[in-house]
Amino acid sequence: MKCPFCSHDNTRVVDSRPADDGQSIRRRRLCDECGRRFTTYEKVETIPLIVIKKDSTREQYDRSKIEAGVLRACYKRAISVEDMNHAIDCIETEIFNREEREIESKVIGEIVMDKLKQLDAVAYVRFASVYREFKDVNTFMDELKKILE
User: Fold this and answer.
1) How far is Cα 128 from Cα 52, in angstroms, rounded to an integer?
2) In terms of pTM, does the model score above 0.85?
């Protein structure tokens, strides 16, 4: 690592710890030449994930879309923010563990529904009603019967 002060190539790591975000490592470094200290952050480089939407368009994966869907589904339910965040983290982990560069939005939707089914039945039905685009009461009732069985 090059020193930002004297541009010398030899620096040493004197302290390493997880950064506040929990997703990177904070390293304190010392320059062997000028003796000054500086901080660097290391983060794992991930391959960008592309989502293939229903209309075959492609866009970069965006966690906030899953968060918004889960929050809407859990609105006015007795579900803690920690439980919702844990479910979202599990969803994201499952998506990235597939190690694919592209994933269809319907696969993401099914993963979200599986996690919501474990979290809260009402949240699951809310999400499913939008995701599966229920057209009438009979379709809605069929989905409710699946939960009750």
Assistant:
1) 19
2) no
